[in-house]
Design goal:
Number of strands of chain A: 5
Oligomer: heterodimer
Largest sheet of chain A: 5 strands, parallel
Number of strands of chain B: 11
Largest sheet of chain B: 6 strands, parallel
Shape of chain B: globular
Radius of gyration of chain A: 18 Å
Strand order of the largest sheet of chain A: 1-2-3-5-4
Shape of chain A: globular
Distance between the termini of chain A: 41 Å
Chain lengths: 285, 299
Amino acid sequence: MTKDEIKKLQDQALRVREHIIRMSGNGGCFIGASLSCADLTVFLYNKFLNTTKDNLQDQNRDYLFLSKGHDVPALYGTFVELGWMEKDRLKNHLKTNDNIYWHPNRNIPGIEFHSGSLGHLLSVSLGVAVDCKLKKQNNKVVTIVGDGELNEGSNWEALLVASAHKVDNLCIVVDRNAFQANMQTEDLIPLEPLEKKFEAFGCSVKRINGHDFEEMEKAFSSFPFQKNKVSVIIADTIRGKGLPSIEKRADRWFVNFKDEEVEALLKELHGVAKAELTSETLTVR
Amino acid sequence: MNYEDLLYELATNDKRYIIITAENRAAIRTLPQKISDQFLDTGITEQTMVGVAAGMALRGRIPIVHALATFLTMRAFEFIRTDVGIGNLPVKIVGAVPGFLSDANGPTHQSIEDISLMRGIPNMKIFCPADEDEMLKGLTKVFADESPFYIRYNNQKPLVEHDDFEIGKAEIFGDGKDIAILTYGFLFNQAYQAKELLEEKGYNIRLINLRTPKPIDEDAVLNAANDCKLLVTLEDHFITGGLFSILSELLLKNKRTADVLPIALMDKWFKPALLNDVLEYEGFTAIQVAEKIINKLKP
């Protein structure tokens, strides 16, 4: 990837973050988790998946499933940047006249399936991947899972099945921001050594910096990592990436920011000044 | 023709069908060899199997999934509700040994809340065949239907040859005005014999086989409520959430009342034993059903 290409992706990711920040007002959103995977969604749609606005119903398209559904603002922001969705539509966030709410709804073009209940889309995407293989199609199936989501046993059950069936067209991307909902993963249900866990389940694993486009390109370009094995990319990310005032903060999981805070965060994103935040996080679970 | 023959025929004629099991091959043992490109075994993983089926359905497939009814409808409940139900995907959920058919397995295997659970899911339809004849007659239409469907698998030998099948239409035997016996599934045979016993004693009986508890045949039920002095619901299911509940809801919705005798499992699991002994012990044989009805009619 050239420096210009990297700069283009970085600029797009910055605009996606602006969209996410705007969605964190007027009822709020899961801002921290959305910001942690924004670079991944930008990379995947620009550089990895063959999915376009025009082939969203084509069975030969690549699929992206967002299992950690609460970070759907990252997808919406990416869709706006790709021209799949009108920017103004994001103002409908949480309005009854649209389908843009805290979790994905597949009535929105580009959303492959609804999610929100954790630990579901690995099995759903496995079904899609198996069907692609049965039909001898070469399309790729990517599923983004959260690290906290890996508490759900259904993921590990689905991995057993995926490995047994040698589903090497499936790529699992773990958004490893090291947080559960309200706690750090290692303080509650430790996941490390995560590579070894996936390897023990028969997967081929790479670990990268989930905010570094060059590392992403290097890792994803060798997909599938091994014939007959599920590929797993553990992407180390930072919850709240781009906003020092909320980065790595357990209490900034879900926030409904006031209008002036949204403006302050937009300035912070562009390095003007750190935002003064008074809105309290919601403890949802 | 049996269940496997039917699946084989459907699958070979329509490549959209895919047969999936969570290592419960009792009803489909010959299919892996015959249609390997339309067969998938996920192992003992009910929830993953249902998720996989939802993914397959997203790709235009019609998945027919197999596991024990109790594990499917309960362990995988949220996957059925969330992936299949919210998705409104045409996944066909075939539950083995439902109700009394799990006979000696014990309460872990007793699927006697499945109707209640499945009917609570929007878009979900339910087919409870009385026996193998009705199951085979119904499945072609059930599998071709665009909705998700829960099927209470039942390959018991038939007592009667059933009418043609239509989703949402009951099969009605007789136009009796004294008593209407409403039932579904495995207990149909007992109900049919109870009808004969009661008729020998001079009672005028109508037997309503509610093949699809959802969608229910409202006209058949309401006509019975209008015409008959006593309605009897007979089901191998907890009293809550099944046919008695469906009838109660239907009557209230239509501002009707009726004299009803519910014969169901009253807030308890049934005594595990061989099937005929279970029926006898729990009071569900034709003779016992007829006695309960006669007792109810005593002044």
